[in-house]
Structures are given as structure tokens and as C-alpha cells.
Amino acid sequence: FPYTTLFRSVKEDMHVILSGKASDDQVVLSFQKRLQADPRLADVKLPTTSSGRANTREVSFTISFTFVGAG
Q1: What CA–CA distance (Å, rounded) separates 71 from 67?
Q2: What is the distance between the alpha carbons of residues 8 and 63, in angstroms, rounded to a whole number?
Q3: CA distance linking residue 60 with residue 65, whole number of Å
Q4: pLDDT digit string (tens) for 7-24?
Q5: In angstroms, rounded to a whole number, what is the distance separating the alpha carbons of residues 20 and 27?
Q6: What angle do CA 32, 8, 51 make, to 5 degrees?
Q7: Could you tell me the pLDDT band of residue 47, with boundaries at 50, 70 and 90?
Q8: How would residue 44 be classed by pLDDT, with cut points 50, 70 and 90?
Q9: d(Cα 8, Cα 62) in Å, to the nearest integer?
Q10: 30-61 b/e with 16+ CB inside 10 Å = b?
């Protein structure tokens, strides 16, 4: 997980929304790829990222996926 990641919601249909902060975009993209590679997860989406202050590369992100189980 990037250094600050919070579970925003888990719905009955097992749709999960996470938000957090990471040191840069590459950390977020790597996290997204790891989630996409997990066969227990489907529909991994990274709808938003935003830059932090001008003097840092820190980014905020929201990512969502559906937990489908062990299959």
C-alpha cells in the first residue's frame, strides 16, 4: 500500500473504494497494477489522482475495485 491509504467504503456487493496519498504517480500506478494482477479483484479503476503542493511530488488518489473472492 502507498504510505497513506484509507478504506472509504465497502458495499454489500463487495465494491471497495480506497483513497490515499503516495510519494509520486509511479507508486500509485504500481499499486494499481498489483491490484489488477490479483485474481480475487475485478474492475480495478483509478479514476482520480491529484498533485499536492508545488514543492512536492506527493499525489492523492482514489482507486476502486470489486472483491470477487478466490474464484
Answers
A1: 10
A2: 10
A3: 17
A4: 777 787 899 999 888 888
A5: 11
A6: 55
A7: confident
A8: very high
A9: 9
A10: ebbeebeeeeebeebebeeeeeeeeeeebbbb
Residue 9 cell numbers, joined: 467504503
Nearest to 61 by CA among 52, 50, 71, 53: 50
Residue type for position 69: G
Task: Count CB atoms within 10 A of the CB of residue 67.
Answer: 13
Distances, alpha carbon 20 to alpha carbons 48, 61, 63, in Å: 11, 5, 9
